[in-house]
Every structure is written in structure tokens, then in C-alpha cells.
Design brief:
Layout lengths: L1 H18 L8 H33 L2 E20 L3 E11 L6 E4 L12 E14 H6 L4 H8 L3 E6 L10 E7 L2
Length: 178
């Protein structure tokens, strides 16, 4: 009997602090005010985003027809086949320009002249593209991006000399088409 009374008193002592009114959460009015502030902030940010997007679309609306041409120097890291057409004959090269990540370059017939680990100057076939004026003003991106965007085809390959390597090894350019 003493154990039961002691147990009930212990439970009562533990439950009483939870029943006190001192630990109440925020009122409904406070929560509504916070919600109204968050909604107002969301609406302001949405308006700013819409204005920025409209400004961006207006500036990017003009396009320019250009020809992408030039050369770049890259080191051949691997020769791989085009698994869609022929899974035996290497037709593509994994290359890296100076201090860049590897990318795949479709080299076709020039693949037989390439050696893994050697550096070459790749001359690209002129390719026409229609680009935004803002992109034209920035200049040609690095060869990996240019290859992905404009589908560069290798026209010729020659071994790189000492003057072809280093920071100034990409000579791709946009030429406006009249």
C-alpha cells in the first residue's frame, strides 16, 4: 500500500508542472501577424523576380548570326570509339585544355594521327550558329562548352609547338554573318 501511494504521489508531482499555464505557446494573433509578414515578404520577392526576368528577357531577345571558327590546343587523354556507329574503331578523343576538365571531341578521320598523352592544335570547321547578343558580347566560351553548344567538328590536327601551349592556347572566335 505504501508503494502504491508513493507511486501516485510521484506521478502527481511529475504531471503538475505540465498542467501549469506558464508554458503557453504564441497566441493566434501573433501567429497570424507572422503569417501576414511572411506573405508580404513573399509577394515583394515575387514582384522583384518578375521584374528581373522581364528585364533579362528584353535584353536577350536580340539574336546574332555568327560563325564559330578558330583553333585551340588540347592534350589527348584517351581515344574512344563512337559506340553508336562502330564500337571498335576510335573516332573520338577525350581531351583537356590548359587547366580544364576533360571533354569528348569528335575527331573522325584525324583520330588515327593522335597519340594519348600528346598535345595537339585542333583547327575547327567553321560552324554557323544563332546566339543571343549578350552571349556574343561575352566572347567564345571555352572549347568544352563551345563543342557542346555549337557541335564543333575538327578539320585538322597538328602537334603543338612550345608557342601553342599555356594560358593563351584557345583561339576560337565569333565572326558575325552579314
Amino acid at each position: 500500500m505504501k508503494k502504491t501511494i508513493a507511486f501516485l504521489l510521484l506521478c502527481l508531482c511529475l504531471l503538475l508542472p505540465g498542467c501549469s499555464g506558464a508554458l503557453q505557446g504564441p497566441s493566434v494573433q501573433e501567429l497570424q501577424q507572422k503569417l501576414d509578414e511572411a506573405v508580404a515578404q513573399r509577394d515583394t520577392l515575387q514582384t522583384q523576380l518578375d521584374e528581373a526576368l522581364a528585364k533579362l528577357e528584353a535584353s536577350d531577345a536580340e539574336t546574332v548570326k555568327v560563325t564559330v571558327t578558330g583553333t585551340f590546343t588540347a592534350t589527348v587523354r584517351s581515344l574512344i570509339p563512337n559506340y553508336v556507329l562502330d564500337d571498335k574503331t576510335p573516332m573520338m578523343a577525350v581531351v583537356t585544355t590548359f587547366q580544364s576538365t576533360p571533354f569528348i571531341l569528335y575527331t573522325r578521320d584525324q583520330t588515327s594521327a593522335l597519340t594519348v598523352g600528346k598535345t595537339y592544335v585542333f583547327t575547327v570547321e567553321s560552324a554557323q550558329a544563332e546566339i543571343y547578343k549578350a552571349e556574343y558580347e561575352k566572347g567564345v566560351p571555352n572549347p568544352a562548352t563551345a563543342d557542346a553548344l555549337y557541335g564543333l567538328n575538327v578539320l585538322s590536327v597538328k602537334p603543338a609547338g612550345e608557342e601553342d601551349v599555356g594560358l593563351d592556347s584557345v583561339h576560337l572566335e565569333f565572326l558575325p554573318v552579314e
